[in-house]
């Protein structure tokens, strides 16, 4: 194997050890390193002198890497600095830990490969394995697309003098953070770039070589929003050795990614459900004289406070594979409630409730208003998709063709035409139906972000339902099975470990009184965006 791996940060290796107040003409590369990786701010220090600012920067570097925080440039600090590492800074420009850590607004990302490496075969498969490792750790999905299909992330091997972020001198690779806290580019796609000039890439532990999957796993952590960790041995630690593999996430890595992307889907089973604002448990009266009303109570550890959740549908973000744009819809008659594609907006207009009808087809409803996807069936209307109130016919039933990797074709049952979309602003990116074209404009990526459940009280098997009129205060009750949308509940992650619960029939949110005068009754209300409408769900 030809060896091209360089000695990392070689100028630092020859720098003399010095203490605070001392100067040395060979010390500037140490200061350059500290500045490059976020420990030392420009124009705050004297070149070649270990002054106060540089000593403080060295102390921060030593603390981050588990070294004795002396503030001096000593042999152990030199050894740590001259290891191969990631190009992303450890600290923000202020010298503080990144406060800009953030997550993607959608959990379903696309990626593509540009150029690979001639160093070894199987480089793309190694990166795919790294994607799969993160997908197994958090509610994330990754779909590979062609480079021309507007991916969120592009993986490439680049020269060390990469114009978007230099890797010269010992940097193995670099990536960027999600769009709202990017540090390298303000546009998509976000880069995962491996240095192809100064490092040898391999699969596995090979002398003088760097394991692709190990480095990819680290860089994808940045893509998802994780900064560097000061926990030695973690995937997100800044440096890595040659002849080494690290392909399993540690507790530190798992804690970080699950903090950014809390579990959004609940598995079928039995749960305690608590109101976040009061910490009181969901319970229900079991007599007709109390109308079987739901209430909140202190913990009683019995089956009246145990609730069986069974999935009956799902909530998705749906994006066109060819453009990467998300399914959305106008919400006004002036625009005929037309379906369109838009950039990610992280709101309910881009979330769609998909429910089986029972004949192999599905209804698709916009979560923001619960209107049904439908479509014109004449050329004069360009076969445009729209939302409409429920009509219970085949224009509102859709056949999903599973292509694998969360990707589907969508056909209108009434005519068999395929959902497609214009890809130019002149047509408002309108969604339409077309005859089969067998291309990616007719392929749609579904990323699940919520689930529709029935909820049964374990003590009696009755289903959670709710009055839908003000005269009954929209109270939640239990009823025998009715198999309709008043007994179906949309449960979505609220972003803080809690969940919102909406009645599918009307979109109102589950809430509860916090006063005994109202018997702590549980009701539905319009959205209020507070903790009385957030629920903590604990599986037994």
Domains, number: 4
Q: Distance between termini?
A: 55 Å
How much is the radius of gyration in Å? 28 Å
Q: List the total number of helices.
A: 7
Given this structure, which CATH class of the largest domain is correct?
A: Alpha Beta
> By helix and strand content, what is the structural category?
alpha+beta
Fill in the CATH topology of the largest domain.
Answer: Collagenase (Catalytic Domain)
Based on the coordinates given, report the CATH architecture of the largest domain: 3-Layer(aba) Sandwich
| Fraction of helical residues | 10-25%
| Total DSSP E strands | 30
Identify the overall geometry.
Answer: globular
* Largest sheet geometry: 10 strands, antiparallel
Strand content: 25-35%
Mean pLDDT: 94
Q: CATH H level of the largest domain: which superfamily? A: Collagenase (Catalytic Domain)
Given as residue ranges, the uncertain stretches (5+ residues, pLDDT < 50) are: 94-100
């Amino acid at each position: 194997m030809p060896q091209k791996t360089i000695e990392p940060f070689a100028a630092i290796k020859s720098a003399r050890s010095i203490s605070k107040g001392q100067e040395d003409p060979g010390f500037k590369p140490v200061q350059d390193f500290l500045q490059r990786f976020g420990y030392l701010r420009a124009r705050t220090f004297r070149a070649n002198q270990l002054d106060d600012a540089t000593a403080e920067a060295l102390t921060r570097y030593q603390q981050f890497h588990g070294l004795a925080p002396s503030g001096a440039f000593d042999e152990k600090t030199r050894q740590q600095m001259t290891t191969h590492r990631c190009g992303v800074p450890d600290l923000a420009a202020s010298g503080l830990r990144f406060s800009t850590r953030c997550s993607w607004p959608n959990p379903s990302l696309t990626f593509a490969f540009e150029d690979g490496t001639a160093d070894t075969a199987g480089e793309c498969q190694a990166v795919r394995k790294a994607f799969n490792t993160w997908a197994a750790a958090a509610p994330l999905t990754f779909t590979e697309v062609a480079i021309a299909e507007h991916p969120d992330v592009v993986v490439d091997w680049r020269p060390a003098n990469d114009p978007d972020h230099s890797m010269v001198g010992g940097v193995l690779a670099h990536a960027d953070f999600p769009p709202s806290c990017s540090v390298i580019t303000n546009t998509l796609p976000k880069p995962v770039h491996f240095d192809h000039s100064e490092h040898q890439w391999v699969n596995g532990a090979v002398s003088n070589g760097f394991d692709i999957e190990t480095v990819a796993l680290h860089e994808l952590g940045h893509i998802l929003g994780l900064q560097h960790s000061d926990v030695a041995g973690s995937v997100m630690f800044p440096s890595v050795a040659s002849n080494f593999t690290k392909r399993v996430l540690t507790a530190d890595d798992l804690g970080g990614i699950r903090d950014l992307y809390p579990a959004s889907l609940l598995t079928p089973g039995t749960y305690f459900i608590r109101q976040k604002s009061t910490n009181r448990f969901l319970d229900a009266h079991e007599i007709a004289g109390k109308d079987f009303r739901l209430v909140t109570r202190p913990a009683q550890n019995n089956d009246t406070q145990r609730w069986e959740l069974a999935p009956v549908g799902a909530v998705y973000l749906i994006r066109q594979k060819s453009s990467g744009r998300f399914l959305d819809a106008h919400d006004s008659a002036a625009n005929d409630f037309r379906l369109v594609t838009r950039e990610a907006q992280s709101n309910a207009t881009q979330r769609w409730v998909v429910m089986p009808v029972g004949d192999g087809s599905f209804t698709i409803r916009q979560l923001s208003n619960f209107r049904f996807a439908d479509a014109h069936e004449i050329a004069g209307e360009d076969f445009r998709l729209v939302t409409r109130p429920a009509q219970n016919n085949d224009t509102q039933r859709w056949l999903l063709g599973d292509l694998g990797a969360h990707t589907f074709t969508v056909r209108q049952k009434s005519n068999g035409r395929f959902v497609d979309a214009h890809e130019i602003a002149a047509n408002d990116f309108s969604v339409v139906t077309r005859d089969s074209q067998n291309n990616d404009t007719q392929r749609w990526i579904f990323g699940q972000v919520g689930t529709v459940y029935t909820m049964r009280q374990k003590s009696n098997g009755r289903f959670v339902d709710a009055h839908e009129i003000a005269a009954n205060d929209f109270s939640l009750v239990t009823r025998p099975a009715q198999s309709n949308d008043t007994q179906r509940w949309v449960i979505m992650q609220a972003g803080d470990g809690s969940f919102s619960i909406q009645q599918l029939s009307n979109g109102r949110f589950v809430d509860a009184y916090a006063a005994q005068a109202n018997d702590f009754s549980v009701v539905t209300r319009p959205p209020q965006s507070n903790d009385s409408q957030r629920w903590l769900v604990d599986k037994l």
